[in-house]
Design brief:
This protein is of the alpha+beta class. It has helices spanning 15-29, 42-49, 84-90, 106-122, 161-169, 189-202, 216-230, 242-255, 281-284, 302-310, 331-345, 361-369; strands at residues 9-12, 60-68, 74-83, 94-102, 127-130, 132-133, 139-140, 142-145, 172-183, 206-210, 261-266, 269-278, 314-322, 350-357, 373-384. Strand 11 and strand 12 (269-278) form a beta hairpin. It is globular and about 70 Å long.
């Protein structure tokens, strides 16, 4: 994206050509400026924005916008987002903005945020929060510290000036989120093992198993049921729909390693889970334009290709959940211990646990006691939407 030389025009995305230009924005802007940025695969971004491919659109809506300078060159983008499941769950008249990118000029950011805010007002909403791409179940949050390190799988990266632009516009921090990094060299195995032994003595009948790929859809449904129960009272939580569940199962087939996905059961009934995924961003860094081949790669071969070509030596744990009836019993220790034992044995020397809400003091203290350190800081921002009389 070039720097604007005159007035900026923001207009809605209309048609396939505009949509392609919207997708192209970060691929044109980040290379050569921000070496730690990791390009997502273009086809994944395209599917995220496509109502026929993304189950989010079963309950949500998006309006994409492009910012152009006087010559017609794109200098930024944004999306206004209505999340139907969020509104049903929270009843807070909150809409979202996402896919935000702009050159380092506040006037461009202001024009883009105005466009998203105006569209959300037209939908009858009274608060704007973000960034979410398009929901908190997807890539979400703004990177505010840790710009010198590459993001893990499905974590955002953005220029440092974005935070200042959002705050200047009037957006305030709604939540801080942390990414913790744990390397096998620094993991406190003995302390964790003692804790797990105590957990098992206090709650007899606990057992642990890995993901069964032959029953993947059933396993994903179990994850959804536990997740929707475990996280229901957490900040920003939105339950997954059946359509989103199926989409998750299809996506997991491409990247999952069953040896680092665990279920904890009590007398044979699943009561908790953890999902760690190979951090394929380590490989995607070598695909700067977001295209594996000119005509793509069959989805089932994506991870195999990346592993063979570049190697993936770390993982990210994006999901962990314990049913409410079993929370506070230390079952999360069993899941973490299993991950840091099985991870190195399967080629993963380190794991990022992200993100952890700033309000979750128990989990923060727990992961820090195991030898994990804060690696990056993220945040969500929000502002009331003034209503026009």
């Amino acid at each position: 994206m070039p720097a604007p030389t005159s007035a900026v025009t923001v207009r809605p995305v209309r048609g396939a050509r505009d949509r392609t230009r919207f997708i192209d924005v970060p691929y044109d802007f980040y290379p050569g400026r921000y070496p730690e940025w990791v390009p997502p695969l273009r086809r994944d971004v395209k599917d995220t924005l496509d109502p026929s491919s993304n189950a989010f659109f079963e309950h949500g809506d998006m309006q994409l916008f492009l910012a152009e300078d006087a010559s017609g060159a794109v200098v930024g983008r944004i999306a206004g987002i209505v999340n139907g499941m969020h509104l049903e769950k929270h009843e807070d008249e909150t809409g979202f903005f996402g896919f935000f990118e702009c050159v380092e000029e506040y006037a461009v950011a202001e024009a883009l945020l105005d466009a998203a805010a105006d569209w959300l007002r037209e939908q009858g909403l009274r608060r704007m929060r973000g960034p979410a791409n398009p929901s908190l179940n997807d890539t979400a949050g703004l990177l505010v510290d840790g710009f010198d390190r590459a993001p893990s799988l499905l974590m955002p990266y953005n220029p440092p000036y974005h935070e200042g632009f959002l705050e200047r516009y009037g957006l305030e921090r709604a939540m801080t989120m942390w990414a913790y990094y744990l390397h096998k060299k620094y993991a406190k195995y003995e302390r964790l093992q003692r804790g797990v032994d105590l957990v098992k003595r206090r709650t007899p009948g606990l057992s642990l198993r890995t993901l069964d790929m032959d029953r993947l859809e059933e396993e994903v449904r179990t994850v959804r049921d536990i997740y929707n129960d475990a996280w229901s009272d957490n900040w920003g939580f939105v339950p997954m729909t059946e359509g989103e569940l199926q989409q998750l199962a299809d996506e997991l087939k491409q990247i999952v390693d069953p040896e680092i996905v665990f279920f904890v059961e009590h007398e044979g009934t699943p009561v908790g889970f953890s999902v760690a995924l190979p951090d394929v961003n380590q490989a995607l860094r070598h695909v700067p334009d977001g295209r594996l081949f000119p005509y793509g790669v069959p989805s089932g071969l994506t991870t195999l290709f990346l592993h063979m070509q570049y190697g993936v030596h770390e993982c990210r744990m994006p999901l962990m959940g314990i049913r409410k009836d079993y929370q506070g019993k230390g079952l999360d220790s069993m899941l973490v211990l299993a991950t840091i034992e099985n991870g190195p044995a399967n080629g993963y020397a380190a794991c990022e646990m992200s993100w952890v809400l700033d309000t979750n003091d128990r989990l923060k203290n727990h992961v820090e006691s195991l030898g994990a350190v804060v690696d990056k800081e993220y945040a969500m921002f929000e502002t009331p939407l003034s209503q026009n009389d």
